Structures are given as structure tokens and as C-alpha cells.
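Example A, followed by Example B.
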Amino acid sequence: MAMARLLADRGISAVPVVDAQGQVLGVVTEADLVRRLAGEADKPTGWFASLFGNQERVAEHYARTHGVTARDVMTAEVVAVDPDALAAKVAHLMEDRGIRRVLVTQDGRLKGLVSRADLLGLGNTISDVEVIT
């Protein structure tokens, strides 16, 4: 899969997904890709079990584990902050939500990404995060 190769080649663990206008749609993480690989080995649900399952959840799981585009496998619920957010706020978000990165957005447009490693080298704010263009 091209997305896995991109992460490996660049030595990164996630990549934001944006539309043509730069609006954030989601993020593809290593965990998303592992989930997809694990889903390839899922056994089909029997007809009887499918009668009682949540069909919407089953369909979403299937799309995320068998999808071939970034939109198919991405995590759509991203955590984002403004460029002037305090580093302490970002640290709390990471800790409270059990995540490894927080997107930096302004007016819904991607400006950067702060990882746990980045957070250790920041001052009081994240305004010095490299802008993604």
C-alpha cells in the first residue's frame, strides 16, 4: 500500500488527509494501516450473526479494513488546536485522549502537526511548528 510506504520512507507515523482547499478531512496513522491489515484476515460473519449485529458498524469496519484510499482507512475524528495554543494544552489533549499527535489548524485549514517528540522541544506555545504547504 502506497500510504504505508510513504510513512516508512519518511520515518513518520501519521499523515494528515486534506481536501483540495486544504480543509482537514482526517489523519492516516500507523494504527489505521495495521487495522486494515488485520481486517484482511477477518472471517466473514455468518448469516445468523449478521441478523443481530449493528449493520452500520459492520459496514464502517469493513470499509476501514478493506479500503484502498486514504479516505477509506483514515481516522476522521481528529484533534486539532489553533497555532497559538499552549504546549501544555496540547500535552493534556494527548494524555487525556491517548493520542500521539495533534493537528494545528487555522480556519479549518492544516498548518502543521505536533507529535509527542515535537512537544518535548517546544517552548510555551506551538506557534513555531513548521507550516505544511
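Example B, a separate protein, is given below in the same form.
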Amino acid sequence: MAAVPAEREPPPRHAQANPRLRVQLAAASTKRRHFLRALRRVAVLGAVDALVLIAARSALVLAREAWWTSPVAATVFPSGFMGGWTSVAAGLVGMAFVGAYASEERWTSPATVFKGVGLGAGLAMWQSLESLGIPWTVTRWLLVSLLLGSALAGVRRVLRTAVLQWGGKYASDRVIFVGDPRGKVEQKAAKAVLQRPGMHSLGWLSEEGGAHDYLGHPSAVWEVLCEKGTDTVVLCGNLPRALFDTVVEAAAVAGCRVLSVRDRGTLMASQPRALNGGRTRMLELTFPAARAGQDVVKRAFDLLTTMLAAVLLAPAMILISIWIMLDSSGPVLFVQERVGRAGRTFRMLKFRTMRQGADSEKSELAHMNHTGDPRLFKIPDDPRVTRAGAFLRRWSLDELPQLLNVVRGDMSLVGPRPFFETDLAAYDDHHFLRLAVKPGVTGLWQVKGRSSIVDFEEVVRLDREYVENWSLGLDLRILFATLPAVLSRTGAY
């Protein structure tokens, strides 16, 4: 049944009932599928290229031994020329550098193949400049580039033809189109996309109903993505800016690849790139395979950095634990349920900074919350805070046990701060994007003011800025900015 737009209702209290959170939950598996497709493509193309390069070396050996080609082959390509596995490795490196293993038309483009072969041949032959001189080296480089480039381009053309002819039976990239399915531009774009290997249409999101494969109005994109398990979303026609951004955001959060016929909209795409589908030019806004790899890098970075930090900070954490036990009665650690990625709850750890049972007093002190927003409960000079707790909060040392949350995978070193599950009931649509990544021990909010920022919308804006522009470099910049922010004690209480 096609999804239809409906009046917006308050988000359900239960996390998994909300389509925005269900889409976030599915994002990891969607990105994993894209990543595995990319790995398969690189493995197959790399193996084919290696076989062609090895066959070319074998053909050269035979040419030197054959009586009708021996004099020419021995003169132009003497014994030992391009020998050994280094020439094969140089060829593969050259092809990889120019993007000959990238998706879509990049790996079938003869121009890309010739560039890669030329670069690889140059890497293999540059040392001969001194022994043979420039004329002979350049001549051999041109011949190798022409012959090997022609061979590789021909093999890849045959491979693409085979994939297009028989690959449809194994189509695995599920595509949703957005636009009017009866429009000429939209039909042209859809045809160009479906001519790519492995593409399978699920249907259309359109402001105009009536098509046999109509899935719903574009405003229902979150619900449709939940139902269909989509891999790629293609924006074919003109949409109002707000609706365009909604579709792009939903698709990006879901881990889908996003293609657009229009050169508009770069939400959640740090480096949009142009693709040519026949005569149809499209802009790729998201690269989920790359993001899946980035997730692995981020997790590895979190683990390595956290383990090192835990070793260095262990003596300080032991002393803090002793101080807390001596200062007031109660446990050393304060454990609280918080909301993490995709609405999952987890037990967040902190050093206890308040007297025992302080959490039950929260409602009685609500009038002292200086933000006026229950989602940002901040009380300057909170009467529940102990002497040790005041010091720990001032220097943000109460957050140190969250290193264990990072090791367990509940949190990341950098990300939006986790909030309470009860806050989800008050979330508007644009608030849910902050739950698309793991919560962090530190983040943009912390380095730009901490508790001095009392507007929840500003907190959400900073969190969305982080999610939409995430990179390992951004994480490093935030980590390096955290220490000065802590030392300045701005907004710390």
C-alpha cells in the first residue's frame, strides 16, 4: 500500500515506533551493503586487471621467442623490461589512483583506463630515464600505454556488457525515484539509472499520484524508507526546497546513496561529485560505501585513543574514586539511562557528583532550571552537588568513566551529548537527526560553551552541523579544542 502524507503528530514515546529512528537503525546494514558491493567491485576488477597484465607479460615473452617478432620485440622491449611483479603492482596502483575501480561509469571509461595504465607504466619505467634516455623511455611508455590500455579497456567493455546482459537477474541495488514519473526529464533520468549494472526500481515518490508504481508523496519518505529497505534514492525533478532537503536528509540518514538530476542541495555531502548517465548529468550527494569505511575508522580511532587515555588517566581516576567515597556516602559511579544512536537506550557512567538520591529531587527543583527547557536541565549552584562533585564538574572530570561507554560501543569520543528517553516525546522532526550517530563524551556543544548555551534549538543546530559534516578531521579538531574549553571553565557547573 502506498504511503500517504499525514498531519504531523507528536513523535511516539517508544523509540522504535518512530520512522526516523527505525530508518537510523537500518542505516548500518544499508551502508554495509554498499560497502560490500564496493569491495566486490574492487576485488573483481583488480583480479581482471592483474590477469590482463600478467597475460601481457606472457605475450611479451612469447613475442621475444617467436622468429617473426623476435628482432623487433627484443629491440623495443628487451629481456627484463617490465619484468617481475613490480610492473603488475605499478599498473594496479596507477588504475586505483585515477579511480578506475570507482562505481558506475568510472570503471568502464576508456579515458580513465588509459590514464591509469599511463600512470602505472610511468611508475614502472621512470628509473630507465637515466639508463636509456628520454627518447627511448618515452617511446616505450607510449607503446605500453597504448597496447595495455587498449587491452584493459576492451576487457572491461566485455565485462560491462556481460554484467548488463546477465546481471539483471541478480540486481541488488534497490532504487526509489522522486519526481513526476510522467515527466520527460524524470523518465530520462530513470532510464539512465536503470541502465547501470545491478539497479532495480522499487517505484516513485511523487507529488502526482496515479502511477502504477506509486509509493507515496515525498513527504512520506521516512515511512517509505522504513518499508522498502532502499539502497539508492534518485531525485529526478523539481521539488520545493524544504521537501527536497527532507528527502535528501531522510535518504542520507538511512545510509542510502543519493543522486540528483538538479545541481541543488548538498545536505550531508561534503564533496558532491558529478556523474554522467549517458547524456543525463547527475550529482551524487552521498557516498554510503565511503561512510561505512569511515565508521570503521572512527570506531578504531575511538578504541585506540580511549585505551591510551584510560592507561594515562587510571591513577587520577583511582584518586577521584577515593575522594568521592571520603566526601559523601553513596556509590562512586552514577549510572543513568540515556538515549544513544537511533533511539537505543544505554547506561551512561559518570563519577557521582551529587548526594545520594539527588535524581529523585529533580521535580522539586524544576523551578530553578535556568534554561526553562526540561530537555536542558541546568541549575547554577545546584544544592544537590557535593564538595567533590563541584570540583569534578568544574573541570569536567566527572565525565571520565564514559571512556568505558566508548569501549563498550555505546558512545564515541566525539558526538552529540546523550539525552533522556522521556525527551523524545517533545522532539520535533528536525531534532531526530542528532540521533543518527553515536553520542559523544565531547562535541561541538561542549567546545562552544557547554552549559552557557541554554537554547535547545542551538544545541540541536550544533549537533546537526556535526552530523552533516562529520569526518575524522572534524573529530580531531573537536578533541583538540576540548582541553582549552575545559580549562576556560566556560559554562561548567
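On Example B: The two ends are 52 Å apart (CA to CA).
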